[in-house]
Amino acid sequence: IDYVVRDSRRYWEVMARARYFVNNVNFPDHIVKRPGQIHLQTHHGTPLKRMGLDQQAYPAAARGMDFARLLDRVDRWDVSVSSNQHSTKQWERAYPGSYESLEAGYPRNDRYYGTGAEDIAAIRARLGIAPGRTALLYAPTHRDYRTGWTPSFDLARLARALGDDFVLLVRTHYFYDRNPELSDLAARGAVVDVSRHPSVEDLCLAADALVADYSSITFDYANLDRPIVIYADDWEIYSQVRGVTFDLLSGRPGDTPGAVATTEDELIDTFRSGRWRGTEAAALRAAFRERFCQYDDGHAAERVVRHF
């Protein structure tokens, strides 16, 4: 794959001559589309939190936002890709524009359908996951009301409670710098710090289960049909400060992807009791997948390409 360094001479040559622009956020404001160029917006993930113009009602989420410029960037979109009807509805309201909504699935999720057992075993080996161990991926999201990341629970305590049969992979949000506490735990072998791993898809494929909070990784991981545990110790604050599009903790089929814990003790008990992979959790996961993995089937990239 050829690549260019941002703001280099070659970068500007490519930006001037390329026909297709593909991005999951937005290109810089000073990029001007020439006639004939096509901008495909693939989005960062299915939205639980309020996005775009919806952030205006939430001061912490709106801080530093220029909504007029945001709409100018949206005006460059030609096609907005969606993996479910929920996302389509949210994108069209939060980012009003003249673009076309394409319900084709998210191309990045195709890997979850096309990666075989041998490849997954190789990924796990590269991460140092010993055969027979259950890998848990903990991937919390960003909080608008916090300036840095600190673990929401005692990572070392959870690792001790789970025992040697489990390995805890921790991936912090890319907004944050390295966390000294996490680095120390990783150095002592209590957890594996995968925050700088280049492929979140590899991490999801390697993990036997996901521990998440309000991150969009939950929706992507659901494609694998593996257990998901929601750790939501600050749901009330998060939902009020950031705003959410549905109640993740309602327990209703389609809203909640699996077992839920709101305290550290409850999280540990969720694994000790087996609730994390019980029949109730499996039923919730199935309904969640049906709602949010609606158009993901391993052929999204093909559908997007054929569309053009």
Task: Name its key features.
308 residues, alpha/beta, Rossmann fold, 2 domains, four-stranded parallel sheet, 14 helices, 10 strands
What would you say this structure looks like, in words?
The protein folds into two domains: 111 residues, Rossmann fold; 182 residues, CDP-glycerol glycerophosphotransferase, C-terminal domain (Rossmann fold). It is an alpha/beta fold. α6 packs across α9. The chain is globular and about 60 Å long.
- Classified in CATH, the superfamily of the largest domain is CDP-glycerol glycerophosphotransferase, C-terminal domain
Order of helices and strands: HEEHHEHEHHEHEHEHEHEHEHHH
Specify the biggest β-sheet: 6 strands, parallel
Q: Which spans of ≥5 residues are poorly predicted at pLDDT below 50? A: none
Instruction: Identify the CATH architecture of the largest domain.
Output: 3-Layer(aba) Sandwich
Tell me the total number of β-strands. Answer: 10
The secondary structure category is: alpha/beta
Largest beta sheet: strand ordering: 7-6-5-8-9-10
Note the gap between the termini. 21 Å
The average pLDDT value, as a whole number, equals: 95
How many domain regions? 2
**Molecular shape:** globular
Strand content: 5-15%
CATH class of the largest domain: Alpha Beta
Helicity level: 25-40%
What is the subunit arrangement here?
A: single chain
Radius of gyration: 20 Å
